């Protein structure tokens, strides 16, 4: 039997937290294990409870969602955990720059706070499965122009094959598997294999992280 997906709610509005908790607890296979009014408490509860998914508000007192996400995914904390923790950023603004920064720090995407219960449920299941809830093309728009000081590409990138670099560049531009397949004259299953190899070699979680990696290292358009 599959265990329930444990969810931590982080928002400074009591009414919003309580409303979201009712929605999540009504879903099959999900349960709310804790709630925090600010990022500081969120970081503490993630360390204590190790939830599967964190719904993280961006704008909060004490510590905002961006800094909380950065701390949650700090290398020392990640090493101490017994299982992965995924973060979904909640924002009132579409394509929010602060949401983009949280994604750079490790969040798996963002949702608008007025999203539907069905979309919220599906997003939680999606990130729990190790995928992202933000289209790479949207993240490309978010990150465009954000990186002036770039760091050189690490040796792992240089180890990619020529075909993998071609697929990497296409993913970084926000192309779908279907579009990449047409571009490189290959099947979608072949594209998926290349993407999987790229993620493994670069130690990245999903396609969104490929976009972030490309922008951070000045590889977009190469």
From TrEMBL:
Residues 6-128 form the Response regulatory domain. SMART domains: HTH_LUXR, REC. It comes from the Bacteria. Residues 153-218 form the HTH luxR-type domain. The keyword Hydrolase does not apply. Pfam families: GerE, Response_reg. InterPro entries: CheY-like_superfamily, NreC/VraR/RcsB-like_REC, Sig_transdc_resp-reg_C-effctor, Sig_transdc_resp-reg_receiver, Tscrpt_reg_LuxR_C, WalR-like. GO terms for biological process: phosphorelay signal transduction system; regulation of DNA-templated transcription. GO terms for molecular function: DNA binding. This is DNA-binding response regulator. It comes from Nocardioides marmorisolisilvae.
